[in-house]
Structure formats: structure tokens, C-alpha cells
Amino acid sequence: MAASGLAALRDVLVPPRCAGCGAPGSWYCVACRNGSDSLVRRTGALVLTAAGAHEGPLREAIHRLKYSNEPGLAAELGVLVARRIAADLAMGVRLDAIVPVRAHPRRERGRGCDQASALAAVAAALTGVPLRAAVHRLGSGPAQATLGRLERRANVRGAFVGVAGSLRGQHIALIDDAATTETTLLDPAAAARACGARGVRAYVVALEE
Ligand SMILES: [Zn+2]
């Protein structure tokens, strides 16, 4: 209630403009939303679903999401991800948890927001699949000795770290804003499996091809 009240207030003070085409009235308009077709790519055991290709209005929207703190835009792009998840759930795909590919917590604090977490929170709220922040990106290559206590207890895979055992037996949906290639999410997927995840799917707003 308080949050939606604040969002409404913000919309009065800063009237939303579509991040894709600039049209007033919303953070990402219906025309831009309908202009993208979803993409599904399989790499080994990982199925990656994107709400659309990283081009045109969606590319503009991702850029604005990354470089400005606009909860309204994150909410509308989160809806696109939630729709793909809901479609898979309706097809009988099992998903026990939604796991954002989070930035390193220190970096997150510095920037005041984390796009993957914002998208994942919206997707979790809309689909009813629980949110679990079990995996995050390491800082720029810290030596094992400098990792915090929590990180030392956890599993490190590539540039990602997860809380050991936190996803045991679960089928999860990894969430990120964009994937540079079909293989971008293989490392966080491996980190999630190292935390016990049995099945991993990945969902992004946009995929570069
Ligand atoms: Zn638009």
C-alpha cells in the first residue's frame, strides 16, 4: 500500500515515458511490448527464454533499466519475464524458486538497485513462485582469502557464488535483465547446481543474437 502510494506519487511528479519509444503514459508501452517475440534457446541442459531480442525498443528499455533507477520500468519489464514463466508453468514445467542473477552485494549497495533482483521480485509476485536470492556475482576476481565468511562456506563457480545447499532438490528459474549470448547464463546456472538445484531454467528480458 505504502509502496504503491509512493509509486503513484512518483508518477505524478515524474510522468512516465516509454523507455522504448518515448511515448508518454507508461514506462514501457503496449505497442513496444507487443513488438517483441519471445525466444527460446537450449544450450546443453540449460533452457534460456527471452521476452525478446536485444534490439529496437527493448534494447532502449534495457539500457535505461541499467543506467537509471526507475522502479516503474523494472516493474513493467518484470511483467514480460513473469509472462514467460507463467506460460511455462501452464505447460507443466516445474519451478520451485525464482533466483535473480544478483550483482555483488557491495556493488548493489553502491548503485542502490539491482536490476535482476527488481525483475525477479516482480516475477515472483506475479507468478507466486517464491523468490530466493541464493546466487550472486563475485566482485572483480577477489582471491579466495578475501572472501567473506558466508562466501567461504558457499560454492564458487566461475564468477558466481551461491549459498551452499540453499537450492537443494529445487527446480529454479534464474532471472537476469539481458544475456549477451545463449551461453551467458551457464556460469550462474552452474553455481545454482552447485548449491543443489536439480533443474535450472533461465529467463531474461532480452537476448543479443
Ligand atoms: Zn513504446
Defining traits:
alpha/beta, 8 helices, single chain, 21% strand
List the domain count as a whole number.
1
What structural class is derived from the secondary structure elements? alpha/beta
Bound molecules: zinc ion
- The end-to-end distance, rounded to whole angstroms, is 40 Å
Could you name the CATH topology?
Rossmann fold
E-strand count: 8
Q: What is the global morphology?
A: globular
Low-pLDDT segments: 141-145
Q: Give the DSSP E fraction (strand runs of 2 or more residues).
A: 15-25%
Q: What can be said about the biggest beta sheet?
A: 5 strands, mixed
Cα Rg: 17 Å
Mean pLDDT value: 86
State the helix count.
Answer: 8
CATH class: Alpha Beta
Query: What is the H/E order?
Result: HHEEHHEHHEHEEEHE
Q: Strand arrangement, largest sheet?
A: 1-2-8-7-3
CATH architecture label name: 3-Layer(aba) Sandwich
User: Helical percent range?
Assistant: 25-40%
Task: Describe the overall structure.
- A hairpin with a 2-residue loop joins β1 and β2.
- About 2% of the residues have low confidence.
- The radius of gyration is 17 Å and the shape is globular.
- With 209 residues, the protein is an alpha/beta fold.
- The protein contains 8 helices and 8 strands, in the order ααββααβααβαβββαβ.
- Bound molecules: zinc ion (ZN).
- The site of zinc ion (ZN) has 8 residues, from α2.
Please sum up the structure shown.
With 209 residues, the protein is an alpha/beta fold. It contains eight helices and eight strands; from the N terminus they run H-H-E-E-H-H-E-H-H-E-H-E-E-E-H-E.
